Amino acid sequence: MTHPLAVLQSPARYAQGREATKQLGAELSQIGITGPVLILSSEAPHRLLSSTWTSTMDRANIEFSVEIFSGECSPAEISRVTSAARSAKATAIIGVGGGKTLDTSRAVADALDVAAVNCPTVASSDAPCSALSVLYTDQDEFLEYRFYKSNPELVLVDSTVIAQAPTRLLVSGIGDALATWWEADTVRRSGSENQLHGQPTKTGTALAKLCYQLLKENAVAAVAASDIDSVTPALENIIEANTLLSGLGFESGGLAAAHSVHNGLTTQPETRDFLHGEKVSFGLVTQFVLEDRSSKDFHEVLELAHSVGLPITLTQVGLKEPSPDQIRQIADRTVAAGETIHHEPFRVTTVDVADAIRAADAIGRDWIASSAPTGS
Questions:
Q1: pLDDT per residue as tens digits for the range 245-274
Q2: Is residue 375 part of a domain?
Q3: Catalytic member of 262, 343, 352, 361
Q4: Active-site annotation holder among 46, 126, 276, 361
């Protein structure tokens, strides 16, 4: 008989700061990557950073090529980029962009058994530090989680670039990170597995709690800094919370209902203009309903979410008047086999989730109404 192990994983190296991209070549050399490397980049980062890549790689004598990301982390895109990387004889795949770009680059690195390097240009999710990718269909519907044997060799975070990104992306990352502690706490209480198929370590759970603490202390000030493209201590703290602490916290602490509700929401075309963390935010309110969380917990989370503009109602994720059939479709997908909602410490059914979604929406609408300025 074997006993379950407590497991913690993390990137081999994490570096964050102003104009960090200028040190990419040096950081690659530090971990023994000599090239050739393939950079998979979204279009906007390519326009902004291509000259910096040339100078930093030249200084490190690292040959590189660039492939532009198509926009979806799908099996077809992974296959396409894998072929390009194989042709380039790449010894490392560097993802530059948002969560889907980085998820794709990690999938390609795994397929070729080469080093994965992530350079997020937004702090919109906790994807950069993880050893998994979230795959979608070409129609942007959640498909599956794909797990890898190791985390990235390097995560390099350029705070200057992130400060210049749209504030909505930072807020989405706050939504993703907001669920980290509460999902990890559920996994701890239920004795479920984390995303590494082991038991959570106390370290992993503590990192998830630190993530939440930094959000409470810095989120509002960080959003204000992002609005004016400024790098401040509050913004640096939120970048670390969204990227490193949420990444380690969700992976080593575990996921529960909030992310499953997100996956359910992706079944509805009306939600497709909304970001991952925005849908996770509403998913967390639904998780609180399912778990019958205290009014204190509800107040704390609703206040934080609302203060930075995160969705707490169905209307805010594109579903103004969802039909009973739409709610059922969302709930059915939420409780699909293998979903992390089954890490809750009780059995959850489609009916439970459908009712919780409706209740969460009502709670969110009441909160917004009660928070409106007098006379508005």
A1: 999 999 999 999 999 999 999 999 999 999
A2: no
A3: 262
A4: 276
